[in-house]
Amino acid sequence: SPANCNILLGLNTNLDLVSSALETLAGARKDEGLARELDANTAPHDFGRIATLEQLEATFLSFFSAGSAAERFVSSTELFDRIVSSARRTQAAVTAPGGNAALMANRAALEGCRVRLAGPVGPALQKLLHPRVVLAAQEPQLTDEVHLILEYARGAKVAGHSAPRANRFILTSDVANARLDGLSDLEQALRDATDDGALVVLAGLHLLEGIADTDGAGPGQHDIVSVQERRIQAVEKLLSLAEQRHVAVHWELASMTDPELLQQLWERIGSRIDSIGLNEQELAFLAKTIRICTDVQCANVAKTVPDAQTVETVLAQLLDRSPRISRVHFHSLAFHTIAIAEQREKKIPRVQWKTSTASVAAGSIAASAQACGDQMYVAHASEFLSLCLGAQSLR
């Protein structure tokens, strides 16, 4: 129950700047002396890491045309600053708490959980956190890390493409989150934890991809790998401490483009956690990376409305592949699914997930309330959650 819920959360925290995707891109083009409308000949293509406005437009179109969510790193701080400036000028631009860790912290606190949050928190973000969220760091940062959330509606049209559903395209270019600066604070919070029912929730590991562009002035490939390696080793140290303290760990995945890094994280982090959460794009990319789905299966998982039967098949393969993970939470705009590993000789789950049916219902309700923003729905979401969870433990 929320009264017994003690969560240690990290690591990606930032200030979200939410604006209209099409207005922001049009403003950025105008700033560069270009026509406001994207050229209809612009070919959708995912560049992975973005350095120019042309790459940004092509990458945006590749996800816009499919109605898929995505997050990409902008290696040019000058370009990122220009896009931020354009976003701030849009009519409906707003700021909000951002980063999976900060968002989950606010949601858990709203439901009555005690939350310690580790990550780069600036003065503006701190004001937007729930009063029940306690910072693991002694003091907040002097400035906020800004992430751009470019939103579009279903049926929106640009460059000859129409969005099949409403969604968002996220741009980042910050240093602190890419370096997982909150790791030491999260480790200390775990050392200080006295509650046997504590749960560690890890988010933001995908931002390690950005190290290539944030660690000094243009490091070589060897430097990039060594920096990533040191961060992964620090995460492994945290997981060792969690094992010693008998604390369960959940890893919330996010959009990635580097299969080699994801393979490393899966082998070294995925083998030491108890639970993982991911959406349709993330599941498809992970399954393809660790070779547990065919091309057809991966495509069926990554669809705008994922094929439920294929999702179940791939989730079963994922649980079978991991020596430790006993729970997977798949979440999409279409539906949520929680898969639990059977207790057998090959795998004896360290955590007994007692309320999975209630949890998947609660998760779906909370996500819908968060995404839809309907005030009546949001106002009653906590009541719905309480009905789903009853007086049972969240674990």
Descriptive labels:
395 residues, 6-stranded mixed beta sheet, 19% strand
What does this entry look like structurally?
By secondary structure, this protein is α/β, with parallel strands linked by helices. Helix content is 43%, strand content 19%. It has 15 helices and 16 strands. The strands form 3 sheets. An 8-stranded mixed β-sheet has the order 7-6-1-12-13-14-15-16, with helices on both faces. A 6-stranded mixed β-sheet has the order 3-4-11-8-2-5. It has a two-stranded antiparallel ribbon with strand order 9-10. Helix 1 packs across helix 3, helix 11 runs antiparallel to helix 12 and helix 14 packs antiparallel against helix 15. It is globular. The C terminus is likely disordered.
Helix content: 40-55%
User: Averaged pLDDT, please?
Assistant: 87
Could you tell me how far the N terminus lies from the C terminus, measured between alpha carbons in angstroms? 9 Å
Number of helices: 15
Strand residue content: 15-25%
Major beta-sheet overview: 8 strands, mixed
Rounded to the nearest angstrom, the radius of gyration is 20 Å
